[in-house]
Write a structure and sequence with these properties.
265 residues; 24% strand; 5-stranded mixed beta sheet
Length: 265
């Protein structure tokens, strides 16, 4: 089984190279980066300070999609849309970790998923996918007098807010309440915003340091508060989950799948 990694020199790309190299039954098909990247041409294994991989960093995504059975993509929205089109063209399975896609970009992924298997998840950790189920269940049980707030913190390099995982948690809470998140979400507050409407799902975003990813969903009710928290301390959890998704995706018919499908939850 051959897996390729686009965005191979990024924070997640480097973790993914290590995860693929550590797996017995997977061959690293190659890795790409945006043209003019400083590591262009370097051996992927040496680039991450590991064993020689025998494949070099290139910017030829087309060749990689033609060669690999599955591609893992943790890059940026514009790049991910282009990669999804290549996946559809070559029938290559695609695992998307990129967050922050707008509605048009998401539409392009959905079109590509008619031609090939695409797994897309805002968070590839097993723990967060368990959390999504717990959040939905709690929102179902607790009446809307319990105000729901989603709090997240990430490292200072992160560009999108709220995080894809925070939004996924918001969607899970909204599903538990039987409403659409877009109808009840408040993604930021500033100034005289008035009192909190009942049923609102609020978000608070913190950025700083090297925090890998912390998420808390609060249900603040009269006389008590329930908090459900997940803290990622290593990007390994995302890389290992994405590799697991890539292995799974190769035997799936075209369609868009979630990490819940991969885990059989
Ligand atoms: P990063 O900036 O370190 O890495 C992204 C890499 O993609 C960069 O090296 C960049 O040069 C490269 N890139 C950009 N355009 C490209 C192109 N056309 N072809 C090839 N490479 C290209 O960012 P990161 O921290 O690794 O995160 C990447 C994305 O993954 C973000 O959207 C982040 O939110 C998301 N993420 C998701 C999960 C998850 O579990 N789903 C976990 C962590 C990060």
């Amino acid at each position: 089984m051959k897996i390729g990694i686009v965005g191979a020199a990024g924070r997640m790309g480097r973790m993914l190279i290590a995860a693929v190299q550590a797996a017995d039954d997977i061959e690293l098909a190659g890795g790409t980066e945006a043209p003019n990247h400083q590591d262009m041409g370097r051996d992927l294994g040496e680039m991450i300070g590991g064993e020689v991989a025998g494949v070099a960093l290139t910017s030829d995504a087309k060749a990689l999609f033609a060669l690999a059975d599955a591609i893992i993509d943790f890059t940026a929205p514009v790049a991910t849309v282009a990669h999804a089109a290549l996946a559809a063209q070559h029938g290559t399975a695609l695992v998307i970790g990129t967050t922050g896609l707008d509605a048009g970009q998401q539409g392009a992924i959905d079109v590509a998923a008619r031609k090939t298997a695409i797994v897309q998840a805002a968070n590839y950790s097993v723990g967060v996918n368990v959390l999504l189920g717990l959040v939905e269940k709690a929102a179902q049980i607790l009446p809307d007098v319990y105000d729901i707030e989603v709090l997240e913190m990430h490292h200072h390099h992160k560009v999108d807010a709220p995080s894809g995982t925070a939004l996924a948690l918001g969607h899970a809470a909204a599903a538990g309440r039987g409403v659409a998140l877009d109808d009840v979400a408040c993604k930021a507050r500033d100034g005289i915003v008035g009192t909190r409407p009942r049923g609102e799902i609020g978000f608070a975003t913190l950025r700083g340091g090297d925090v890998v990813g912390d998420h808390t969903v609060m249900y603040a009710g009269p006389g008590e508060r329930v908090e459900i928290t997940h803290k990622a301390s290593s990007r390994d959890v995302f890389a290992n989950g994405a590799v697991r998704a890539a292995l799974w995706s190769c035997s799936q018919p075209p369609g868009r799948y979630s990490m819940k499908d991969v885990l059989g939850l």
